[in-house]
Structure to design on (284 residues):
């Protein structure tokens, strides 16, 4: 199978994640699992086609985690895309475990993180993970120990760059005192801007900010101001929401996910959208 990059996602411009340059519109693979990010999807062939189409559309940054499935999402990516095309960056995460479909439990113990990295390397068929992110701070483990374990794995050549997720400004500073941090992945969208302070620090330091849940769910897409601007511009609510994120900050790297090729293509169309100042202001 030969895959080639298309200019679509590249129209959003590029961003540096450490020393890696990627197009500024990525893909979050979580929704390619079964419901509630548990198990395999009903149609594995469709999941493969979505991943392949994302790459064809110029997406060269894919985000996953060992807890998606659990573990199956990483294997899906390898099944659909390996051998990986040159320039494709796969970011994964560890530090959450799934006792059952409804549970997400923090586990930031160094021993667990070491096993998690080895498992991700095996499932993704990689010798080194370009971006490995601590999925969430564990309240039962000193944050320094969790980040320190990842720094040890980086020194041993298992990890190229380290990111953190679901983190505060204070935790970002602690992490940066241990090792270089190239990305932060927090929830951020038109409805939820609680991480505005973290985004500001990322802007100041040149750290990539990956907003998870970038569309804000159905409530976010149906917000009155989104509907009004989308109607005026003749855009889908999703494309408009992503265009707003891209316009919001130069360090923003949205990673919308979907099971639908039609929705994927609409999301990538956001890369070419330029919001007028009045549109951007109306969405604040």
């Amino acid at each position: 199978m030969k895959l080639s990059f298309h200019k679509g996602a590249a129209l959003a411009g590029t961003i540096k994640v450490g020393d890696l340059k990627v197009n500024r519109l990525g893909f979050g693979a979580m929704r390619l699992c079964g419901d509630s990010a548990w198990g395999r999807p009903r149609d594995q062939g469709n999941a493969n086609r979505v991943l392949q189409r994302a790459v064809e559309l110029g997406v060269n940054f894919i985000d996953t985690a060992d807890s998606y499935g659990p573990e199956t999402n990483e294997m899906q990516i390898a099944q659909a895309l390996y051998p990986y095309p040159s320039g494709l960056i796969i970011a994964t995460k560890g530090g959450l475990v799934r006792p059952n479909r409804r549970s997400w439990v923090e586990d930031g113990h160094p021993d667990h993180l070491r096993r998690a990295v080895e498992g991700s390397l095996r499932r993704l068929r990689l010798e080194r993970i370009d971006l490995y992110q601590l999925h969430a701070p564990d309240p039962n483990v000193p944050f320094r120990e969790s980040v320190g374990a990842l720094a040890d794995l980086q020194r041993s050549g298992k990890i190229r760059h380290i990111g953190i997720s679901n983190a505060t400004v204070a935790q970002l500073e602690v992490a940066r005192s241990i090792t270089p941090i190239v990305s932060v992945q927090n929830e951020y969208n038109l409805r939820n801007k609680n991480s505005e302070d973290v985004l500001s620090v990322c802007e100041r330091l040149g750290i990539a900010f990956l907003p998870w849940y970038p569309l804000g769910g159905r409530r976010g897409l149906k917000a009155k101001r989104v509907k009004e601007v989308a109607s005026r511009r003749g855009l889908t609510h999703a494309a408009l929401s992503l265009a707003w994120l891209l316009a919001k900050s130069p360090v923003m790297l949205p990673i919308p996910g979907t099971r639908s090729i039609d929705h994927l293509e609409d999301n990538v169309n956001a890369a070419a959208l330029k919001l007028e100042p009045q549109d951007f202001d109306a969405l604040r």
